[in-house]
């Protein structure tokens, strides 16, 4: 059955660059997902232990907020249990983590919205690499739950819109791992080795100045948001014409000039996360691309 809507959708999908296919197995993908779930689980449980009801109230949150965050933490523990159960003896064990920007319930909640967004992008980006269809359903059921977490955190707590736009953003394995690894201090040496790597950090100043350990010669910044990727040249270490985004967007430094071909194979640094929630009382203006 190919309706007009389906045809339009297929055309849109065809013009979108699927994350680069890699020689990853389903076990790799489950271990990768579990790596992220362990991180989320430790993040929520660690800070809920640290910030009690009074800390949340003192930070100005209504009295029901912490209980709901606790519920999210329980979901993450359940995701860990689900994936660990599927992997059995091949299950990745938790690492130790560091979240230096978190100093109080407010900064904890702000980072939670970002971490949930990255979780959504990770499952979305990995979906096309999963071989076993039953795992797609499991991953999908976790993905939609992470999206609800993100929506609630953004909307009810950050008073921002519950979404970034009409489509969420799929990210490749290395892009996600680059973000996650910044929070990982060390892992048990017995953990399975994942076929993923972390790119050097990327920072783009408000005037477009790029700070990174990677070379900026002959490079581009690609801005990824939803299923849209847009390319901006880098001249003398400055990205040219990068627009202001709303919601969550990801910028990478790449040797690739073609926006449909950007991916783990050609990224040099990043992603840098732009997180500028727009006011949910206003309607969503058109993207500024
Ligand atoms: C970008 O890559 C796609 C896929 O290979 C190709 O169809 C398209 O023509 C390329 N665009 C440009 C401007 O080279």
Defining key terms:
289 residues; alpha+beta; single chain; globular; binds 2-acetamido-2-deoxy-beta-D-glucopyranose; Ferritin; 2 domains
Short description:
The protein is an alpha+beta fold and 289 residues long. The chain has helices spanning 4-14, 26-50, 53-58, 65-87, 105-127, 133-157, 173-181, and strands at 96-97, 184-186, 203-204, 210-211, 220-225, 228-235, 238-239, 247-254, 267-276.
CATH class of the largest domain: Mainly Alpha
Q: What do the pLDDT scores average to? A: 89
Number of helices: 7
How far is it from the N-terminal to the C-terminal residue, by CA?
34 Å
Helix content: 40-55%
Oligomeric state of the chains in view: single chain
The fraction of residues in strands falls at 5-15%
Low-confidence stretches: 1-22, 285-289
Fourth CATH level, the homologous superfamily of the largest domain: Ferritin, core subunit, four-helix bundle
Overall radius of gyration: 19 Å
Strand arrangement in the largest pleated sheet: 7-6-5-8-9
Query: The biggest beta sheet, please?
Result: 5 strands, antiparallel
Secondary-structure-based class equals: alpha+beta
Q: How many structurally independent domains?
A: 2
Overall geometric form = globular
Bound chemical compounds? 2-acetamido-2-deoxy-beta-D-glucopyranose
CATH architecture of the largest domain, please? Answer: Up-down Bundle
Strand and helix order: HHHHEHHHEEEEEEEE
Structural features, described:
This protein has about 290 residues and is an alpha+beta fold. The chain has 2 domains: about 10-185, Up-down Bundle (Ferritin), CATH 1.20.1260.10; about 205-275, no CATH class. Helices cover about 40% and strands about 15% of the residues. The protein contains 7 helices and 9 strands, in the order H-H-H-H-E-H-H-H-E-E-E-E-E-E-E-E. The chain has helices at about 5-15, 25-50, 55-60, 65-85, 105-125, 135-155, 175-180, and strands at about 95, 185, 205, 210, 220-225, 230-235, 240, 245-255, 265-275. The longest helix is centred in the first third of the chain and has 25 residues, at about 25-50. Bound molecules: 2-acetamido-2-deoxy-beta-D-glucopyranose. The site of 2-acetamido-2-deoxy-beta-D-glucopyranose has 3 residues, from loops.
């Amino acid at each position: 059955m190919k309706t007009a809507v389906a045809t339009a959708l297929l055309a849109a999908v065809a013009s979108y660059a699927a994350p680069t296919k890699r020689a990853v197995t389903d076990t790799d993908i489950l271990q990768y997902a579990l790596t992220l779930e362990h991180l989320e689980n430790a993040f929520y449980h660690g800070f809920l232990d640290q910030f009690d009801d009074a800390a949340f109230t003192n930070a100005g949150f209504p009295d029901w907020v912490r209980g709901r965050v606790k519920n999210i933490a329980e979901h993450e523990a359940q995701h860990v249990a689900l994936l660990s159960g599927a992997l059995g003896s091949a299950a990745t064990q938790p690492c130790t983590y560091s979240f230096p920007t978190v100093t109080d319930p407010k900064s904890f909640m702000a980072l939670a919205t970002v971490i949930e967004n990255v979780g959504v992008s990770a499952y979305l980006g990995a979906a096309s690499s999963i071989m076993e269809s039953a795992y797609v359903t499991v991953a999908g059921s976790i993905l939609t739950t992470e999206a609800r977490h993100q929506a609630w955190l953004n909307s009810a707590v950050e008073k921002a819109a519950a979404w970034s736009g009409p489509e969420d953003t799929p990210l490749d394995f290395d892009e996600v791992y680059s973000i996650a690894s910044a929070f990982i201090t060390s892992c048990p040496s017995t953990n399975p080795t994942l076929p993923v790597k972390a790119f050097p950090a990327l920072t783009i100043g408000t005037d477009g100045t790029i700070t990174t350990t990677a070379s900026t010669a002959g490079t581009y910044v690609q801005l990824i948001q939803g299923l849209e990727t847009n390319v901006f040249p880098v001249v003398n270490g400055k990205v040219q014409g990068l627009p202001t985004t709303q919601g969550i967007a990801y910028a990478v430094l790449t040797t690739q000039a073609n926006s449909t071909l950007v991916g783990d194979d050609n990224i040099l640094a990043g992603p840098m996360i732009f997180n500028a929630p727009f006011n949910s009382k206003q309607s969503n203006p058109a993207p500024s691309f």
